[in-house]
Design brief:
The complex is a heterodimer of chains A (294) and B (615). Chain A has 11 helices and 2 strands. By secondary structure, chain A is mostly helical. The chains are: A mainly alpha (294), B alpha/beta (615). The interface between A and B is large, with 43 and 46 residues.
Chain lengths: 294, 615
């Protein structure tokens, strides 16, 4: 059995984690029109929220649900406190990037002040190993993949079948026009922050489950991988982000097997730079777009 | 003062000097040019590492691993550090600055900053990995005794020297015509490119200059503290510098200086005096939270900072006074125009901003020829096989219903948008694949349908920025100082004032263009295009939103330009104006030309009337 078979399996798990995060990130960009550089920090904060419960004896899967609620609340607050006021005032995209970076700095340092810089890990039942073909996955990893699949299906259903989802797509395409058509874009954007915040909370927690331990500084590295997946798929496009997540997940794990696991982020970064230079609109340029990326 | 106090004071002064240098470098990029360099700290790191390995002994036999170890004498490590910062800016600039949108640029630089730190941390044999370099010998060790109080003050002096150098260079750049061009780029990139400004070159230049200054600051710092490790240049350090600029006042060098003293120095030093409380690391974390609050708070309550960028007001009377002849003389004799004679004409009675270049060609040879131009957007054929010719001395009208593709055609002709197919020939040369700024440099100039003034430049500056070949509009010219370009500048100011007078805008000369009414902005844009002395002028609804009395003035100026031999294409919806000025007129609908000829002829074509005139 080759090391690459196992790496492919890990890649699937990574992809599952990245997909949850990247879909949320890209929806914020597409609908709320904001590059949320605080995203990785929201993820890690949610992971710590789950950790606090886990320390108190709560099962980690219940912790995932709590982290989703925490991520949703934190994202909602960040948006209401910082992003929406600046957007209402007509700040340009680049000004918002600076605001978001400052917001991320505050979130991560508040967290740092509370929990400290050291690594922690969840307490959970010993993992049962499943083998199928060349793949080796633990039961926990399988659950992560299932959670991700469920989240993707939910996002698809939301955008395709619900009124809210259609309102989101209309807001993404043209917020002013949507508002003039009677769509309460303010509330739609609030909903986007809650939903994507929940996604970031889930993503942060499953990422932390998937890695042996985690610490506050991981927020920044999450962000790189998510950016790579979102940009690769085409910024603002949920289905593109799913595809990007799959590619980035596999690429980082396979390269980790071939080279060294220390350079996972470097591989993601290389992909990001190449895509930005050669195809800044991403792989899926218009198919399934949530409005223009500009 | 006790030795301890002196040591404290000198340390503070060196730190302040380093932060001031860094802020001045970042201000050139972010404040002046609008480059959001979230990776600024890696240029400082490059300088620090380089200076360290240039001054350290060979690594063999020490407990550290690193490349270099050349033991070069002062000031080579400092120069090497600056150079390293500047050189590093070239490959990164080539990756980031050429094709990426501004927000992608910022993100890419942030990511590069994080990744660079990861790589250096993991690659131990390169620069000693996470532990970093220690025992970096201070400058002049072996030459003077570096353990004395005198050496401390010497170091402060050397730091201040570096600061002063950076400050003077940055000041010359900011206050020159080159700085004006940088600010124009910051305000509106597309418009700056349409005036012939090479944006990539401008950004690269500021990236390198900022990198040099950052590298020097790193070299100064490492020489003093003697250690340098990855955890000293994490990406939040860049955010602290951004906070300094936002608090101090971006775009203003004094603001950058003040910000450096207020945020990294005073703010981080102040916490030394509050009693320790909370777990270890609590206070630094809270400091960072406060930095974030400072950024957000200032952006909200005082976005231009404590010392905002100063508005440039030109003195009323130029040296020698303004004679009638001054304005009329135009650029004649200025070195920028290598002796080509400007055609003698006076601004006062008739339009005089003449096209330069080849003598007026026979009116039968087109200045601009477009063949089968097409422009597609994701399957939508906005322009679908349009051919046209613009002749010198003719004002061609372009009319058609909304969505006909008129503005897109203009953008393709000017190079703002690349053509999907077809060929564009300007004065016999194929310019299809030239970027917008090169076409503008060849005399093909456009205006925009949506107002595209440079908001944070005064009206007068908006006009001056367009002038090509200004000796102060290069990095070298700017660094030479004001004396080298002021004579030309003074002449241009007079010329611009004459133009302002003609359009009744003199009173607004020192107002920010962003504070003008819509109609006034329109005028600024037309005057700006004229300052460039185009040969082919593409106007996108030049009269929309302009007061009727000024419409007449614009019309008569256009007539004058036409009679002087300019080739003009004008998109206009006001048919009476098209009637008065344009012949021939081209009618577009759904991306195609559906009629061409004089208005009289067009009015008789059913298809045209249905598509547009009656509609």
């Amino acid at each position: 059995m080759s090391i690459y078979g196992a790496a492919f399996g890990f890649g699937l798990v990574s992809a599952a984690v990245i997909a949850i995060a990247a879909v949320g990130f890209t929806m914020q960009f597409g609908i709320a029109n904001l590059i949320n550089l605080a995203y990785g920090e929201v993820m890690i904060s949610s992971a710590y929220a789950a950790w606090a419960l886990n320390q108190a004896g709560v099962n980690i899967w219940a912790g995932v649900v709590a982290a989703a609620a925490f991520g949703a609340a934190l994202s909602f607050v960040l948006n209401r406190l910082f992003y929406t006021p600046f957007q209402r005032r007509g700040a340009v995209l680049i000004g918002l990037v600076i605001v978001a970076l400052a917001a991320g700095l505050m979130v991560s340092n508040i967290l740092l002040a509370i929990v400290g810089p050291d690594s922690v890990s969840y307490t959970m039942a010993d993992a049962v190993v499943l083998r199928a073909g060349g793949l080796i996955l633990t039961w926990v990893q399988l659950v992560i993949i299932l959670i991700s699949a469920a989240a993707m299906a939910a996002v698809h259903a939301l955008l395709t079948f619900t009124r809210l989802g259609k309102a989101m797509r209309a807001t993404a395409a043209n917020a002013t026009l949507a508002r003039n058509c009677g769509i309460p874009t303010g509330r739609v954007v609030d909903a986007v922050w809650v939903i994507t915040g929940a996604l970031s909370g889930i993503a942060g927690t499953v990422a932390a489950i998937n890695s042996a331990s985690f610490r506050v500084a991981d927020g920044a590295t999450y962000l790189i991988v998510i950016l790579a997946a979102a940009v690769l798929g085409g910024a603002g496009q949920p289905y593109g982000a799913m595809l990007g997540a799959l590619l980035i997940g596999e690429m980082t794990e396979l390269s980790a097997a071939a080279l060294s696991p220390q350079y996972k982020e470097v591989v993601a970064f290389a992909v990001l730079v190449v895509v930005m230079i050669l195809r800044p609109q991403g792989l899926l340029s218009k198919i399934g777009a949530l409005g223009s990326a500009g | 003062m006790t030795a301890g106090q002196i040591y404290y004071a000198t340390t503070l002064l060196v730190y302040a000097g380093v932060d001031v240098m860094a802020c001045i470098g970042l201000n050139l990029q972010f404040g002046v040019s609008g480059l959001v360099n979230f990776g600024f700290i890696i240029f400082q790191a490059a300088g620090a590492y380089t200076a360290a390995v240039m001054s350290m002994p060979p690594a063999a036999g020490t407990f550290q691993q690193y490349v270099g170890g050349w033991q070069l004498p002062f000031p080579l490590p400092w120069l090497g550090g600056a150079l390293a910062g500047g050189l590093l800016a070239i490959p990164i600039g080539l990756i980031v600055l050429r094709r990426l949108r501004a927000d992608y640029q910022a993100i890419a630089l942030l990511v590069i900053s994080i990744i660079a730190n990861t790589v250096i941390t993991n690659a131990r044999s390169f620069l000693n990995g996470a532990a970093g370099l220690a025992l970096v010998p201070p400058p002049l060790s072996g030459v003077v005794d570096t353990k004395t109080v005198g050496y401390q003050w010497l170091y402060v002096g050397l730091t201040m020297l570096g600061c002063a150098g950076a400050f003077v260079a940055a000041g010359r750049i900011v206050h020159s015509p080159y700085g004006r061009t940088l600010r124009a780029m910051r305000e509106r990139e597309l418009a700056a490119a349409s005036l012939g400004k090479n944006l990539v070159l401008l950004k690269m230049a500021m990236f390198v200059v900022g990198g040099l200054i950052a590298g020097l600051s790193g070299a100064v710092l490492v020489g003093y503290i003697g250690v340098w490790a990855p955890n000293t240049w994490l990406y939040p350090e860049t955010i602290v510098l951004f906070a300094a600029l936002i608090v101090g006042g971006r775009g203003n060098n004094l603001g950058a200086l003040l910000g450096a003293l207020l945020v990294p120095v005073a703010f981080e030093e102040a916490t030394r005096f509050i009693p320790q409380f909370g777990p270890p690391g609590f206070i630094p974390a809270m400091q960072r939270v406060a930095i974030g609050l400072l950024i957000v708070g200032f952006l909200w309550f005082r976005p231009s900072g404590t010392l905002p960028e100063r508005r440039r007001v030109f003195p009323k009377a130029q040296s020698g006074g303004m004679r009638d002849g001054d304005a009329a003389e135009g650029f004649r004799g200025s070195p920028a125009f290598d002796g080509r004679p400007a055609r003698a004409a006076s601004l006062a009675p008739g339009p005089s901003l003449m096209p330069e270049g080849p003598p007026p060609a026979a009116a039968s040879v087109p200045r601009l020829r477009a063949e089968n131009i097409a422009r597609h957007f994701e399957g939508l054929r906005a322009v679908d096989g349009v051919s046209l010719e613009l002749y010198p001395g003719r004002l061609t009208g372009l009319i058609g219903p909304n969505g006909a593709g008129k503005s897109t055609l203009l953008a393709v002709l000017a190079g703002t948008l690349p053509a999907s197919a077809g060929r564009i020939v300007l004065d016999g040369d194929d310019v299809t694949h030239l970027p917008a700024f090169r076409r503008a440099q060849r005399g093909l100039v456009r205006t925009f349908q949506l107002s595209s003034e440079f908001s944070q430049l005064t009206v007068l500056e908006n006009l001056l920025v367009a002038v090509p070949g200004h000796p102060g509009d290069t990095l070298v010219g700017a660094l030479r100082g004001r004396r080298s370009w002021w004579p030309v500048e003074a002449r241009l100011v007079n010329q611009a004032r004459a133009l302002l007078d003609r359009f009744g805008m003199s009173a607004a000369e020192s107002q920010y263009a962003g504070d003008l009414s819509g109609g006034q902005r329109r005028l600024v844009e037309i005057m700006r295009a004229l300052m460039l002395r185009p040969r082919v002028l593409l106007l996108d609804e030049p009269m929309a939103g302009v007061h009727p009395s000024v419409v007449d003035e614009i019309a008569s100026v256009l007539e004058g330009l036409r009679d002087d031999g300019l080739a003009i294409l004008m998109v206009e919806h006001e048919l009476s104006m098209v009637d008065r000025l344009c012949d021939p007129v081209i009618v577009m609908a759904q991306g195609r030309v559906i009629g061409q000829g004089s208005m009289t002829v067009l009015r008789q074509q059913r298809e045209v009337v249905e598509a547009y005139i009656a509609g």
